[in-house]
């Protein structure tokens, strides 16, 4: 092992120890204090105690993970009262080092106790063994860089003959984060790494790994021409360096219908591969092309991506939900019904046909969007745990909707572009088919000329909302529409249903 890779590990360990000391100092609370927030147990088994001083009653609990029920750790009591108490932690002997965390809760405050038994044993392992291993254990493994998804933090996939493991974060040669590019790691390189295993949403990963050794691939992509092809198609060219025996190309099955090889030219260690890309009648599409070579004993690979613009498909939300997950771009218009993340713009939109979740809108914080606004976005059909969602959404346009009382709407000028959100009690249903109703708020009453299931409803889709949702006289209705007048009487026109509360 080279000295430049050993030193970062020592430095990282020292920094971890310092961080633990800092944490002990910073977590002193008035409500509950502990003599130490770090407890070390002997690897052969044994006990250790700390003192707990509280101004109120307190409870203690283990943090249980999906991979560790922490049954090996025994705590002398599950709680205590005001004043000073002793808390003892015990564990039987352990083959490998292990860790746990315990929470002490009192008066709405929490103290975190870190438990460690023995020293973690670093094991050389295959990817399949890492998947089967416990969370928190540090593994040493060797494999090939398959894909790189983040070049700042160093998120990528490592593959060996037994499977693939995701790497979430890579330390540089000095043990620092967010400096992945300094390592010069590329797709196709063989690399030995070391880091702890964790599980995120049921998927195993190695976190903040240290790079022990890099065996550079014998083939790499130096540059490409026309990385983004137009709708009309054209030629895509890849320039490669190869120190192996020839160059072979693999086109994925899903791209063989529109992507083909025109020619492969090799001169010394340089190769030029040209591809023909057909015209695109659908949405945006792309693929990953894999190039490989061999030294006679081992195969080396590298890859590049090709993308092609496509048409944007205008769709109802129902049509979007029925579509397959992919790169096709869809244009959707609907009313914002909920905003679950005000930083990134995770929200729900609804039209007359259905509702879908939008996993963020680009630059959302600058858009000043709110619940009730009518927006048009473009994004891809994606899914999370089989639940459909819009990914990579970009805002195209917005129609602001102003919340207003009936009294405020009555004095507004007529306009076909200014939208208001109004709530009131239904006092009369004038037309049950199209939802012509009277709404009352206090002493003020407003006629609503049509309440339709959602934005975009036309023809028969406008009919029978009241019956479908069992909306009756006396119910509280919230509707979006524009102010107009008929025979000098104010009304809300072309109402979009937002919500209702039953009088029952």
What is the secondary structure topology, with strand pairs?
Elements: H1 3-26, E1 32-34, E2 38-41, E3 46-54, E4 58-62, E5 74-75, E6 79-80, E7 83-91, E8 98-106, E9 109-117, E10 123-124, H2 127-132, E11 138-150, E12 155-160, E13 163-170, E14 190-200, E15 203-215, E16 219-225, E17 228-229, E18 234-242, E19 248-250, E20 259-267, E21 270-277, E22 285-294, E23 299-308, E24 312-314, H3 317-322, E25 329-341, E26 346-351, E27 354-359, E28 374-384, E29 387-399, E30 401-403, H4 406-410, E31 419-431, E32 436-441, E33 444-452, H5 465-468, E34 476-486, E35 489-501
Parallel strand pairs: 2-9, 10-11, 13-15, 17-23, 24-25, 27-29, 30-31, 33-35
Antiparallel strand pairs: 1-3, 3-7, 4-6, 4-8, 5-7, 8-9, 11-12, 11-14, 12-13, 14-15, 16-18, 18-21, 19-22, 20-21, 22-23, 25-26, 25-28, 26-27, 28-29, 31-32, 31-34, 32-33, 34-35
Task: Briefly say what this structure is.
With 504 residues, this protein is mainly beta.
Descriptive key words:
single chain, mainly beta, Immunoglobulin-like, OB fold (Dihydrolipoamide Acetyltransferase, E2P), 5 domains, five-stranded mixed beta sheet, five-stranded mixed barrel, 5 helices
